[in-house]
Structures are given as structure tokens and as C-alpha cells.
TrEMBL record:
Keywords: ATP-binding, Leucine-rich repeat, Membrane, Nucleotide-binding, Repeat, Signal, Transmembrane, Transmembrane helix. Pfam families: LRR_1, LRR_8, LRRNT_2, PK_Tyr_Ser-Thr. It comes from Linum tenue. It comes from the Eukaryota. This is Protein kinase domain-containing protein.
Length: 433
């Protein structure tokens, strides 16, 4: 019996713990719901949207939603509570609904650069967790609500560039935690409370500053706000020195960047020549001349289309004049820096350098850079083998442009034919296609 009582007692304790856990979860998940299952934050946000005119439909919120955390311009905490409302520069007009005071978890309100008018709701004073409030560059009128002084967490307050009137509420001076306050360019009147903020701007209020653009010397101002004349001059001198130093620094950075770009360009243009002896010792290339890329570029007039004498699947052929007047044909391979391009180049160089016959066009030289593969042949003006085989009229001087293996074996067969019939002479072009 005693064991059964202990068992029943343990079961009751477990059930009570589960019930309490369920109640805590329900309160956490639905703490913002009314008895009818309506989220208070959804109602407040919908009131705010209905009081505004939204030409771009950025506040496209669903009034039937239970959770507003998926809405645009709304930020929520990890607990699903609305902590931010930000819709700056969205051409919103209308007024700001007092229902904003029901969003008691708000920490950030950004509605600057719109066309919102009317009074600033005094209900903002209920947002005890608010840290940033920016209503600048709108058309708010009336006075600054004194209820803002109860926002003990507020650090950043901008109400500049509106149409606010009346005097600044003295209780605002008690907001010692406030670090930034901008009330400039309104129609506020004196007196000005003594603020202890790090940044306080009140210029552009005609009833306080008169016709001047600043308030220096017009009315008694807090020590923490404005500097005396000597301090002002020193401050201006410091600004000038800072601006001069910044300008020189920027010029130095630009010059450095320009020099770096020139260095990169010069380095990119430097040609890395093909070293036969070091990189391809296994190739028997014979006495080939290695040409600098610039020399071949000058010889072909920068590979001008006027010098083009042949085209093929592996590249174009150009007529060129070397510095000593020698007439050559320069074959410029396509995709010289592509995968396999170097292997193709080595294969062609190896095959051509090994083939020595009076009916075969010998390889005169070559050039290889990071991005270019070029072969240099003596220029032959009798046309191509393809022209002779196809029976077409002899046109301008042509030059090899077909794959190496096919060209080599075609010419080789013709050469063998001539050697077997010594009394006949081959009249085809002494060049390779």
C-alpha cells in the first residue's frame, strides 16, 4: 500500500509539472492574444497602416494574420514580439496613429523622409523600451510631446525638418541617457532647456535663432551645446586641418592605386618566352629562332586584317615583314592559353621540326607567351596545297591553317609520289595547309 501511494504521488507530481509547463508555453506563445484570439500587436499595426496613405503598397499587411513577424517593415524578437517598425523614404502620408503606443515592445521606430503630417502622438511615451525614434523630414506639426521624457531607454531622437511649434518641453532635459537630439529646422520657440546630450542641434528655428543660420551669440545657450568664439575658431582650424589631411590622404591613395594598376598592366604585358632547352628538352626542335612577341606584332602591323592570308580551325595566318626585310608568314593559334593549347603547340612544333624535305615548308621560328602561341614560316607565294588539289584558281598567297597531322600526311604522300616518279615535277604550292 505504501509503495502504491508513493507511485500515485509521483504520478501526480509529474502531471502537475506538465500542466504548469503547458500553461507557461501557452502564455509565452499567446500572451499577446485577446480573449477572442486577436493579437494586440496586429491590431495596433493595422491601425497604423489604416491611418497612413501608402502609394507603393509597402505595408501590404494581412489583417487576418495572427503573427505579424512575417510582415514587411516589421522586426520581431526571438520571442515573436514586435520590436521594430521601419519604413523610411516610402512616400507615406497621412498621420501617425496613437495605436503605436500599444506596441510596448518597440525598440526602434524609423519613419523618416516621408510626408506624414499631424501631431506626434503622445502615446509614444508608453514605449518604455524604445531606444531610437526618427521622425525627421516629415510634416509633423504641433508641439513636441512632453511624454517623451518618460522614455528612459531612448538614446537617439530626431525630429528635425518638420513644422513643430511651441517651446521645447523642459522635462526633456531630464533625459540624461539621451546621446543624440536633433530639433533643427522647425518653428520652435524659446526658452531652450539645458540638455546634456553629446549632440544637440537646434539651428534653423527662426523664433530661436532669428534670421541667422546658426544660434551662436543670439541667446544664452547651454555650455555643452555651443563653443565660445576662441573654441569655435580652434574647432574650425581643426576642421580645416582635418579636411586638408583627408584630401592629401585621398590623393595619395588614388596615386598609389593608379601606380598599382600601371604596374599590373605592365606586368601583364610582359611576355614570357618559350624556352626550348629548359621546358621542352625532350623535343628535337633543331635550329629554330625564338621571336619576341612584339617583333611579330610589328611585323604583321598588329595582326592587321590587311595582312591576313589564311584562316583555319586552329588559327589565322598573317603575312609579315621582319626588321631585316625578310618576308614571313606568321600563324597565330587560337586559344593559346586554353586547356590543351600548349600540348597542341608542342606537338605541331615537334612534328614540323622533325620533318625536313625540299617539298615541305620548314619551320623558321616560334613565339610563346602566357596567352599567345605563334609559328613563323618562310612566306611562299604559290598558293596552298588545298588550292591545287581542288583545282581552284590561284588567288592571293595562302598559308597553312588546317590541323597538323592531316596537312603533314597529305604533303608527305605527295612528296613520296614525286620521289617514286623522278621524271615528273610537282607543281603544287611548296607550303603546307
Amino acid at each position: 500500500m505504501e509503495a502504491r501511494r508513493k507511485s500515485n504521488g509521483g504520478f501526480c507530481n509529474f502531471g502537475l509539472f506538465s500542466w504548469l509547463l503547458f500553461c507557461w508555453w501557452s502564455c509565452s506563445a499567446y500572451g499577446m492574444l485577446s480573449p477572442r484570439g486577436v493579437n494586440f500587436e496586429v491590431v495596433a499595426l493595422m491601425d497604423i497602416r489604416n491611418a497612413l496613405k501608402d502609394p507603393h503598397n509597402v505595408l501590404n499587411w494581412d489583417a487576418t494574420a495572427v503573427d505579424p513577424c512575417s510582415w514587411t517593415m516589421v522586426t520581431c524578437s526571438a520571442d515573436g514580439l514586435v520590436t521594430g517598425l521601419g519604413a523610411p523614404s516610402q512616400s507615406l502620408s497621412g498621420s501617425l496613429s496613437p495605436s503605436i503606443g500599444n506596441l510596448t515592445n518597440l525598440q526602434l521606430v524609423l519613419l523618416q523622409n516621408n510626408n506624414i503630417s499631424g501631431h506626434i502622438p503622445a502615446e509614444l511615451g508608453r514605449l518604455t523600451r524604445l531606444k531610437t525614434l526618427d521622425l525627421s523630414n516629415n510634416f509633423f506639426n504641433g508641439g513636441v510631446p512632453s511624454s517623451l521624457s518618460s522614455l528612459k531607454s531612448l538614446q537617439y531622437l530626431r525630429l528635425n525638418n518638420n513644422s513643430l511649434t511651441e517651446a521645447i518641453p523642459p522635462p526633456l532635459a531630464n533625459m540624461t541617457q539621451l546621446t543624440f537630439l536633433d530639433l533643427s529646422y522647425n518653428n520652435l520657440s524659446a526658452p531652450i532647456p539645458t540638455f546634456h546630450t553629446k549632440t544637440f542641434n537646434i539651428v534653423g528655428n527662426p523664433l530661436i535663432c532669428g534670421a541667422e543660420q546658426d544660434c551662436f551669440g543670439t541667446i544664452p545657450t547651454p555650455q555643452s551645446l555651443f563653443l565660445n568664439s576662441s573654441q569655435s575658431k580652434a574647432h574650425k582650424g581643426h576642421k580645416i586641418a582635418l579636411a586638408l589631411g583627408s584630401t592629401l590622404g585621398c590623393m595619395f591613395l588614388l596615386a598609389s592605386a593608379f601606380g598599382f594598376l600601371l604596374w599590373l598592366r605592365q606586368r601583364h604585358n610582359q611576355q614570357i618566352f618559350f624556352d626550348v632547352n629548359e621546358r621542352h628538352e625532350e623535343l628535337n626542335l633543331g635550329n629554330l629562332k625564338r621571336f619576341p612577341f612584339k617583333e611579330l606584332q610589328v611585323a604583321t602591323n598588329n595582326f592587321s586584317s590587311k595582312y591576313l592570308i589564311g584562316k583555319g580551325g586552329f588559327g589565322n595566318v598573317y603575312k609579315g615583314y621582319l626588321s631585316d626585310g625578310t618576308l614571313v608568314a606568321v600563324k597565330r593559334l587560337k586559344d593559346g592559353n586554353a586547356s590543351g593549347g600548349e600540348i597542341q603547340f608542342q606537338t605541331e612544333v615537334e612534328m614540323i621540326s622533325l620533318a625536313v624535305h625540299r617539298n615541305l615548308l620548314r619551320l623558321y621560328g616560334l613565339c610563346m607567351t602566357n596567352s599567345e602561341r605563334l609559328l613563323v614560316y618562310p612566306y611562299m607565294s604559290n598558293g596552298s596545297v588545298a588550292t591545287r588539289l581542288k583545282g581552284k584558281p590561284l588567288a592571293i598567297a595562302c598559308f597553312p591553317s588546317q590541323p597538323v597531322k592531316l596537312n603533314f600526311f597529305v604533303i608527305l604522300m605527295m612528296s613520296l609520289s614525286q620521289m617514286l616518279q623522278p621524271n615528273q615535277h610537282w607543281t603544287g604550292a611548296q607550303g603546307r595547309e
